[in-house]
User: Fold this.
Amino acid sequence: MPATRIGVLTGGGDCPGLNAVIRAVVRKGVQDYGMEFTGFRDGWRGTLDGRTVRLDIPAVRGILPRGGTILGSSRTNPFAEKDGIRRIRETLAKAEVGPLIAIGGEDTLGVAARLTDEHGIRCVGVPKTIDNDLSATDYTFGFDTAVQIATEAIDRLHTTAESHMRVLVVEVMGRHTGWIALHAGLAGGANVILIPEQRFDMAQVCAWVTSRFEASYAPIVVVSEGAVPKDGELVLKDTSRDSFGHVRLSGVGEWLAHEIERRTGHEARTTVLGHVQRGGTPSAYDRWLATRFGLHAVDAVREGDFGKMVALHGTRIVRVPIAEATATLKTVDPALYEEAGVFFG
Ligand code: F6P
Assistant:
């Protein structure tokens, strides 16, 4: 009889490194502590519907470099489902699962915090998101890979922009924070970087674009999907909401290219990087961080330290209350954005 069977799930948007966490959790838990694991399919959906996945050492072999998640993911919110909590309890009892390791972003972890604090369903959280917008951790895995992909795309766009002397607008993900835009924009030598934290002035954007052409170069404008013009609203193509109430972002890139063309007379095109930023193999850094998060999450379960999330502070992995990590978004510091301004125009 194993000491504890532990449930593992991955929720929210997938990101590179999820499999590295799962592998580390299972390897350490089984080898060092004699634990047993059960995976739940598609995030909280699997705990509601009772869909499980075998999770032993053979099941996690070879998954370290694989993108996505072997468990599947969804944006299911059990608190928005009829009898959600009762159904989770039933699933856990049937699968003989005690504690849960929930790997997710703000929404998935928010559920984990409430389940622990309000319903006695013991959870440990592992932070993931390409957006890097979770407070209480310096970085989330997935972010480094996304930045690398966006930077490579910007590098490529420079040459085609120069050939045609066009403006190339690159729309990147990040939801309501500009981490991906700022890091990839800086690394890729963008001439304009627009982030959600600072409303942008179209006249200023056009002045930067024009000055770049005056220097006989073609401008690259990196815009975060959640960036908002000073005198306008969030630009959206689709206003439907998921079960956590989030709208689907995207559209500002197209809008911006059109506005730049109209105001400056320079031809402009848009590239929306979209889910390419979330797919494929994780970077070495993300594998390293995800693996360490997994190892430390198992220790937290073993010590009965529930309601906590593992987090990166400098080079140390620490534990913080999940509620603390999900209370506020980690946004781009204005001083950081200002630093990048040297390269605008
Ligand atoms: O939170 C990660 C993220 O990729 C955001 O950057 C983006 O806005 C959103 O998820 C896209 O969600 P979906 O995969 O549901 O289209």
